[in-house]
Batch of 2 targets.
Target 1
Amino acid sequence: MKEFKVFLREDEIPKQWYNIQADLPTPLQPPIHPGTGQPIGPQDLAPVFPMNLIEQEVSQQRWIDIPQEVMEKLLLWRPTPLHRAYALEKALGTPARIYYKNEGVSPPGSHKPNTAIAQAYYNKVFGIKRITTETGAGQWGSALSFACCLFGLECKVYMVRISFDQKPYRRMMMNTWGANCIPSPSKDTNAGRKMLEEYPDCPGSLGLAISEAIEDAVTSKDTRYSLGSVLNHVLMHQTIIGLEAKKQLEKFGEKKVDVVTGCAGGGSNFAGLAFPFVLDKINGANITIIPAEPTSCPTMTRAPFVYDFGDTAATTPLLPMYSLGHTFIPPPIHAGGLRYHGIAPLLSQLIIEGLIEPRAYNQLECYAAAVQWARTEGAIPAPETSHAIAVVIEEAKKAKEEGKEKVILLNWSGHGLMDLGGYDSYFSGKLVDYPLPEDVMQKSLKAIEGLPKPVAMKKGNPA
Amino acid sequence: MKEFKVFLREDEIPKQWYNIQADLPTPLQPPIHPGTGQPIGPQDLAPVFPMNLIEQEVSQQRWIDIPQEVMEKLLLWRPTPLHRAYALEKALGTPARIYYKNEGVSPPGSHKPNTAIAQAYYNKVFGIKRITTETGAGQWGSALSFACCLFGLECKVYMVRISFDQKPYRRMMMNTWGANCIPSPSKDTNAGRKMLEEYPDCPGSLGLAISEAIEDAVTSKDTRYSLGSVLNHVLMHQTIIGLEAKKQLEKFGEKKVDVVTGCAGGGSNFAGLAFPFVLDKINGANITIIPAEPTSCPTMTRAPFVYDFGDTAATTPLLPMYSLGHTFIPPPIHAGGLRYHGIAPLLSQLIIEGLIEPRAYNQLECYAAAVQWARTEGAIPAPETSHAIAVVIEEAKKAKEEGKEKVILLNWSGHGLMDLGGYDSYFSGKLVDYPLPEDVMQKSLKAIEGLPKPVAMKKGNPA
């Protein structure tokens, strides 16, 4: 009988995370202080993050043990299944073999809890009692609420007001796990109060929500802030996805993989699947590794490599990354998790090295791909995930044209059950594409003209 | 390391369904025609269901092969994991070992597609091109939409108007799988048009939606009707749940199970887990098998054993079952799937035989149980599932009092991500209990006084 999916036994789950910093051909350039222009040190971050996570952020150690307490929580839903997409292959008439890693089976419905669990644990052992964060569409806020609940930590989520009002189910999820989710701007911080005074009906923004969450963390007792993507340690916590997938591909009898893909907003689900395969590529394997993004927020495919703030409100250290400028406001596409002005420094460096090859897709094409997926493989993808499905369909068609039996691996990062409004707009013909006009991008980039410039280094030389 | 869950390999999945009719101590009494009072034959049902499913409905064969085409669709998400609920056990301080079968991992999020897939297949091979059904809260309509999509059948879902308006995400799920979901009453049937003429703002009812779906099926070309619970063949399709669970308990090293539980509205998810264990009990095993229902719709715990219509509009054959009367309108509890006036004839017969022991729970107690579950085991249960969790917590506390290492097995029938409104009402203190007043029940039962009476038979003698 055909094998549709492979589970791992729990004793086969990877026991360590993979830290790609140990294998980068060129080390990351350091984050720098926006005031001094000097590299920042661990102590500069200590009011915001616990020191054990800061140590992970800068660690050059290749393999880092997953603590037993973290593993016991991950085992609530991990290892996740690796499926073969026979029905989609058949519908496409492709000779390619398509595999997908199903991260949608976690209680909050995406890959996000892989790092939320780890971050909650490290905060707890560092003596932290309470974690703050921001959330846009709500996927990250849900995951951190879930993780804090399991470790008995308080959790406060500043949710962008327009999403808070439009997506009440996300707030209800967070409440069910005991978190306090409030709309941002709020009256609980100086940043929020200031905004409400000037603009009482402010719909909020991710940048402002970050500012509120950080202000709350640095001014409250036993409290730290948590970020759901972009940073090195966050991406590392996701590598359990790719490490599991490698073992599962072996069980499927696959000796090599040709294409690896995932969507990338901050970059964490893509990194989680891809980094163990990037290591193979560094060691000589011939793999095409593709992060997918929206044409409306084309960080990786069109933006320059710069030093920029991580948040819209310009309160974080400057990070070396591809960025559209921290004041960039992406169009209202449904893939809220891909509406970020920058991309993780680690992904940025891999792009410079030519180790990963980003592509951008329009919203309508992604929904068409998602609907084809749901009508063949069954499960309804998150709008973010649909971007990676667009890659899969493109590559599977290419394999058909070339008559090649390629192996394609996809990170199915989450289900779309909390985001069905986008499908409704798609079917009713209301959905449109928003390719980014060049002049809008250039205008946004003007805002970061005065910031320090990094040099794009590749294998020790300017790229 | 502790084992949190056990997967089966795909080649270990059960290859046959278990038909409990072969092992009933007393055979079921036949459905009868409301006009003639005589038992109905297969031909009477032929306009409504395809003959291959009617044959399954009356089959006395113990094991029935699962067709390869059905298996290939079930393998999109099956076998489902069996988890051990260590965190809940710890929170309760119980010596009991609690296991749960996770049916929430299916694409529509519940056990319902186990039968939807099978029914779509049998309709297809019988030459049917189009299936109609009704849906209340939307769980069944979603599952049938999904199944019809996979087999290339048209699907039309009549959704009770009040739910259609209040739960737009359910309709969007059905649309994503290509189904046509319309509010009932509709202009597409005589029954719907008649109601709309008399009562243009009619919020609809499950009974009327059934009438519309059946009228559509019997008057349209190549069309049949499909039901998501209650009938013998529907319950049989769910037995893959319990057959998988038995193998998984063995892998966990468990030699016997003490308590088996699931919630029961029509009875299908409970039957799916429980029937293979009922067989063990018939063969002498000492197992307590508990279907759980709401106190607001206490079919199994308070209603009489009668002949009654399956639908509110009194269009179906009369079924021998515990029933509150087909005109009974349950209070607006959030567990929409448990708001049915009757219970499957097979469950009714097992209650008469004393092989299963129903219990009823209040809504508030069930939400408290569901929240304790979400905050320990992680995943948010459907409001229906919370009734089975209430049993688990009660039994685990009893095991603690008695100091006994009991093994408790639960069917975690679905997640609550599409039904978070109930949790919101619970946290805001708005939720209330609706225990059924005796006089309301007696009034409802008056409506079936004139119908034929079955004799409750037990092992060949009156019960």
Target 2
Amino acid sequence: MIKIPEKAELLNTHTRIKSFIHNTPVISSTLINNIVGANLYFKCENFQKMGAFKIRGATNAIMQLSENQQQRGVVTHSSGNFAQALALAAQSLGVKSFIVMPHTAPKVKKDAVIGYGGTIIECEPTLEARENTAKKVEKKEGATFIHPSNNMHVILGQGTACSELLEEQPDLDYIFTPVGGGGLIGGTALSAHYLADHCKVVGGEPFEADDAYRSLQSGVIESNLSTNTIADGLKTQLGDQNFPIIQQYVEKIIRVTELEIVDAMRLIWERLKIVAEPSSAVAFAALLKEKSAYQNKKIGIIISGGNVDLSKLPFTSL
Amino acid sequence: MIKIPEKAELLNTHTRIKSFIHNTPVISSTLINNIVGANLYFKCENFQKMGAFKIRGATNAIMQLSENQQQRGVVTHSSGNFAQALALAAQSLGVKSFIVMPHTAPKVKKDAVIGYGGTIIECEPTLEARENTAKKVEKKEGATFIHPSNNMHVILGQGTACSELLEEQPDLDYIFTPVGGGGLIGGTALSAHYLADHCKVVGGEPFEADDAYRSLQSGVIESNLSTNTIADGLKTQLGDQNFPIIQQYVEKIIRVTELEIVDAMRLIWERLKIVAEPSSAVAFAALLKEKSAYQNKKIGIIISGGNVDLSKLPFTSL
């Protein structure tokens, strides 16, 4: 049985990591508000350090280690934003980081990790190889494994994006976030529960990776059999640390198609003039899909990150 | 002989239009600063109303008309940002606008003008047809013609982006802007001259449309024979209203290749996480090209706009 963190733990997390992260801007667009029929506030974590919210949780998790643990370093396996997040968070805290990545990972991602001072350990591109390699590093280096989403310190850290949004817009009716491994929506749900009066949390999830939606239906953690989605940050699996929080504090999860994700992403790029990842667009796509239920509400949307490969964009001629 | 506006006219312009425009954000990136070896401050006019600085000059030009003139409306010919700018500025001031556009202009641009309440008059896609059609509208409607860049009220309006930037960063050593018709760089040069202690203005211009560079060399206004550049906002021609200002107050103009423009644009998108037009990237490309001359300086860069066709981006695999 997981113990759901208390309000003080969330508040302490924010105080702890504040000076290591950006308080990112919140932006709005009259045109988008008119399209949706509601007042939207986009929390721009694409402007966060290393380009995504993940630095929040990574920073908190490392700071919660003992001095002895910090001296031996941290390890994770990721080919996405968490790899960069853990490397950068470790660097700014003076801690060693070991990042297990499949040897097939793009050079640009490896270069980013190296640029942030991380040590890359390559492995075969399977989940089994990743986990085994990470375990070997734990043993050999004495490093502490930090999971990208299924770790309560990570979840609390990710929740601080919502805390900042609520400081700026305290009377939100809803907050929409994308759902991947469950770290962001779990932390957001805690933050909305403890820091707002009546703010409900809604998740957006691709049909192609809808483990969280199905898990809420069945009451047990379901797996993704395939993950054929453009929202590459959302292919990961829900975990036993965040699922109970989601069950208790998330209002609902709305599933969206790949076309709906690309359309929402295009609207964000064209109207907000910001570079946002496909995963970021999933929350907005969910709201667009069911907008009739949210007329005249005040709604926050977490733009989760902005690390995209510009040579592989999904926009084609209309 | 053109009379160069005095400081009071610039200050009055800003006071006049302030409530009709956004004071856009200024952003920085540690990584970009490290690449350049200087401290850069990007003034983000891509977040301006209608997505570009042009609303500033359009608003000022309309507000300077007599009541009688305002009642008869305004007319311009443009298929670019100034078409939308004049339509939106006119709408928010309760004035009619007539926008002459070639019938070949993209539907998305026509729709934007209509969305802002402008009346489109179509013509053949030649400069002669545009000018003749605009003259006919002037005569028939009694509307006042507003040139997109060669109009002193427009030039003064465009200068207010630099005024805001200097309010936030008063001790800039340089400001870089793109050079198209000369409205933005002309206004910026006036603003830097009157409002800063020692701030020099540098222009970036594509080799493929280098009329301003050649005009500064020869001392007379030169024409572009061809304008084969991705920076479609910079194909326009320098004018007799802004050239004397540029001659007197612009330090130099640096020319850049198409590849340098795309590389600079990619860096802006990847690192600043913002959507900026190719024309916007030209000023930054100029600085990147000659960065050795600007080490450790404080440099402002005007990001002129963010209206791009996402289905026609220049980024390809590296």
